[in-house]
Each structure stands twice: as structure tokens, then as C-alpha cells.
Write a structure and sequence with these properties.
This protein is an all-alpha fold and 304 residues long. The protein is built from 15 helices and two strands. Helix 3 packs antiparallel against helix 4, helix 3 packs across helix 9 and helix 4 packs antiparallel against helix 9. The mean pLDDT is 93.
């Protein structure tokens, strides 16, 4: 590991500690105003599903994109935690028997294995709903217009035309394999949309003009594609002990991926291309953009 890569991973780890501490506070058992009660098993399962050792890459992107423009760290932390709740919901539901049917997530039993299917469904529902609660909350120090913009963008990233729609396409791909363009669309929706939001959110939080929002949005789209190419490459070249989840499942199901279609050499060259394109988008911001550029490198070349 290079000195730069080591420094980045330390920065990512430090951010993860801050995010996890805030998530633990947000997911405690104390009812908030207008809540009637927080059932113990539901809170416990939500806590288990959200606080399970992830990298917290998405909140990191929110926070660094916000800092790029001098926006509020506190607002970025709140929005990052909201995004992590939504991301965690997607993993809890994705692991269910009706979806990917996984028993292992980050080296631990998945939520439906630790508890039961009904609890896992409700924990996912709770995390999804709570994401928007956090953004709208008075504790998130942003103008109402910024909160509305964030809720709209996150809804579209997570919903019909984003992650949920991408998951539907992914399920359909088990029976009817998409062509290359179909795979690109599926992955941009299922994986890329939340990473796109994470980057654009920083510009929204910092009240930046449309040009900056568009540039950060495009950066997020590119690293989202890199994330999926890297993920598919790891699915072929790594193992369950390293990744903390099952590998080779796409190949076992006969599911098409870009790496499966084009090969590992193409994947490595494509990752180089995507990182170069992502970095070029941020060049106008100078040295302030280095943390985001390092994040793009990490996403493309990570080992797990």
C-alpha cells in the first residue's frame, strides 16, 4: 500500500467512526417527538443491519463533496447518515430469500438469519423511512429548500428510476439476460444512483450553482460505474473470506456482467479509464478535490 493509499484509508476509517457514533445515537431506543414508541426488536435489528462494520464510503463522499465547497460538516454528517440508513436498508432487503438469498454480509449472519424474515423486512422498511426523517429533521442544519432538494434527489436515486428499479432489472436478468447496454443501465440504477447522490449532495448542502451540481453528479456516475466493475472483478478474482460475502454467485446463476462479457483485462483497463475521467472532472477545483480523487482510486482498485 502506498503512503497516499494508507492515508486515504485512515481518513476513511476516521470518517466511519464518526458516522457509526452518530448512527448509534440516531438508532437508540428513545422515541423522538411524534413517535409513539420504538419497539426493542425492531431497533435492535435496524442497529444490527446498519452498524455492521461497513466502510461508510457513501457518507465519506457526502462529507468530502461538502467540504470541497466549504459547506457545513454537521449537515453533511446528518445527510451521510441518512444515506447510510438507506443503503443499509437495501442490503437487508437484498439479502432476503426472495431476492439474493444470502446468509452472510460483511462476515456476519444477514439480518433475516440473525432474526427472522419478517423482522428483516421491517428493519429495512424502518431504515428506508428513517433516512428521510433524518434529512427533514430540525437537527439537520440546512434551509428547507436544501432539504427538499436532497429528499427529491435521494428519492429518485433510491426509487423506481434508481436503485429499486435497478434491483427489479437485476431480478429479471436471472431469466432474460440483458445486452451490454442493458447491463450498463441496470448497474447505473442499482449501484451507481446512490453514489451519484452522495457526490451531488455535497454541492446541494453547500448551496452551489447548477454547474457544480452537474459536475459532482457526473463524477458520482463515473465512480458508480467503477464501483460496479470493480465489484464484478472481485466476484471473479477474490474469495468469501476476503470479501465477507459469497463470491461467484453471478457466474453460478449465469447472470451477465460487463466483466463476464469482456474479461478481466478489459475490466482493469476500463477502471484505469474511469479513474482518469473522474479525476479530470475535478481538476478545476485544484488541491481541494484530492480527497475525492483518492476516493475514486480506492473505489476502482480496492481489494475487498
Amino acid at each position: 500500500m502506498t503512503k497516499s493509499a494508507d492515508a486515504f484509508e485512515q481518513s476513511l476509517s476516521a470518517c466511519a467512526e464518526i458516522v457509526e457514533a452518530r448512527l448509534a445515537t440516531l438508532l437508540d431506543g428513545t422515541p423522538r417527538p411524534a413517535e409513539i414508541a420504538r419497539p426493542g426488536q425492531l431497533i435492535e435489528a435496524m442497529h444490527y443491519g446498519a452498524l455492521n462494520g461497513g466502510k461508510r464510503l457513501r457518507p465519506y463522499l457526502v462529507m468530502q463533496a461538502t467540504r470541497l465547497f466549504g459547506g457545513s460538516d454537521e449537515a453533511a454528517l446528518q445527510v451521510g447518515c441518512a444515506l447510510e440508513c438507506l443503503h443499509s436498508y437495501s442490503l437487508v432487503h437484498d439479502d432476503l430469500p426472495a431476492m439474493d438469498d444470502d446468509d452472510l454480509r460483511r462476515g456476519k449472519p444477514t439480518v433475516h438469519k440473525q432474526y427472522d424474515e419478517a423482522t428483516a423486512i421491517l428493519a429495512g422498511d424502518g431504515l428506508l423511512t428513517y433516512a428521510f426523517d433524518i434529512i427533514a429533521s430540525p437537527e439537520t442544519p440546512l434551509p428547507d429548500a436544501a432539504k427538499v432538494a436532497l429528499v427529491l434527489e435521494l428519492s429518485r436515486a433510491a426509487g423506481i428510476g434508481g436503485m429499486a428499479g435497478g434491483q427489479m432489472l437485476d431480478l429479471a436478468a436471472d431469466k432474460d439476460q440483458p445486452d451490454e447496454a442493458g447491463i450498463v443501465t441496470l448497474q447505473a440504477m442499482k449501484t451507481g444512483a446512490l453514489l451519484r447522490f452522495a457526490c451531488e449532495a455535497g454541492a446541494i448542502i453547500a448551496s452551489q450553482p447548477a454547474e457544480d451540481r452537474d459536475r459532482l453528479r457526473r463524477f458520482g456516475e463515473i465512480i458508480g460505474r467503477a464501483f460496479q466493475v470493480a465489484d464484478d472483478l472481485l466476484d471473479i478474482t477474490s474469495d468469501a473470506a476476503t470479501l465477507g460475502k459469497a463470491t461467484g454467485k453471478d457466474a453460478a446463476k449465469g447472470k451477465a456482467t460487463l466483466v463476464g462479457l469482456k474479461g478481466t483485462d478489459w475490466a482493469r483497463a476500463e477502471l484505469d479509464r474511469l479513474v482518469t475521467e473522474a479525476n479530470a472532472l475535478l481538476d478545476p477545483y485544484g488541491a481541494k478535490a484530492e480527497p475525492l480523487k483518492e476516493a475514486a482510486h480506492f473505489i476502482a482498485y480496492r481489494k475487498k
